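Re: [ENG-882] Designed sequences occasionally contain unexpected residues at chain ends

Forwarding the minimal case from QA. C-alpha cells:
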C-alpha cells in the first residue's frame, strides 16, 4: 500500500469521492460526489472534477482545469491549466418556456481521454469526443471530433498536423515509417491512424 492521499484544507472533496494512494488535491480544488481518482494523481489549485468522473492512475489535472461528468480519463492523462472537458451538446440555462432547466431536462455526455494523452492549456474538448491514447492536443485547441491515438492536434476547430510518440515529441518521417526522436520507436500509418512497429 502506498502513501495516503493528501487533501489541502481549502479543497472540497465529497465524502463519497474515492482518492487513490498518493493522490494530492491542492488548494481550492473541488472533487464532487462519487468521483473516482486512481493512485498518484495531482489535482491542481482551483481544478474541478465533476460527480462520477473516473480518473485513472498517475493523472495530472492542472490548475483551474474543469473536468465535467461523465468524463473518463485513462492512466497517465495530462489535463493542462484551464482546459475544459464539456458535457452538454446543446447548452441552455432554460427551457423554451424560460423555466430554469433541471437535471431532468438534459442528458450529460462525456469526454473520454485514453491512456497517456495530453490536453494543452486552455484547450476545450466538446463532448462527446474520444481522445486517443498518447495523443497531444495543443494549447488553445478546440476539439470537436474524435482524435486518433498519437495525433498532434492544433487549432480551432482542431485538426491533425502530425503524429507524436509516447514521449510527446513529434515523430519524424523516414520514408514509410514515423520515428520518435527520443525513444527510437517506429510507427507505420494505417489509414487515418498509426501503429507501433513490433
Amino acid at each position: 500500500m502506498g502513501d495516503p492521499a493528501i487533501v489541502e484544507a481549502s479543497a472540497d472533496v465529497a465524502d463519497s469521492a474515492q482518492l487513490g494512494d498518493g493522490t494530492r488535491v491542492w488548494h481550492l480544488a473541488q472533487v464532487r460526489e462519487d468521483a473516482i481518482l486512481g493512485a498518484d494523481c495531482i489535482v491542481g489549485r482551483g481544478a474541478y472534477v465533476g460527480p462520477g468522473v473516473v480518473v485513472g492512475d498517475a493523472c495530472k489535472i492542472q490548475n483551474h482545469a474543469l473536468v465535467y461528468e461523465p468524463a473518463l480519463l485513462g492512466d497517465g492523462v495530462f489535463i493542462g491549466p484551464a482546459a475544459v472537458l464539456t458535457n452538454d451538446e446543446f447548452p441552455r440555462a432554460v427551457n423554451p418556456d424560460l423555466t430554469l432547466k433541471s437535471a431532468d431536462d438534459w442528458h450529460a455526455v462525456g469526454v473520454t481521454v485514453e491512456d497517456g494523452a495530453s490536453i494543452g492549456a486552455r484547450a476545450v474538448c466538446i463532448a462527446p469526443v474520444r481522445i486517443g491514447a498518447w495523443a497531444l492536443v495543443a494549447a488553445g485547441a478546440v476539439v470537436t471530433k474524435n482524435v486518433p491515438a498519437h495525433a498532434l492536434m492544433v487549432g480551432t476547430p482542431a485538426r491533425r498536423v502530425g503524429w507524436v510518440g509516447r514521449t510527446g515529441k513529434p515523430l519524424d518521417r523516414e520514408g514509410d515509417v514515423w520515428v520518435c526522436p527520443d525513444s527510437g520507436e517506429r510507427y507505420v500509418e494505417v489509414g487515418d491512424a498509426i501503429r507501433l512497429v513490433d
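QA comment: On inspection the terminal residues look reasonable. The chain is about 0% helix and 30% strand. Proposing we downgrade this to a documentation issue.
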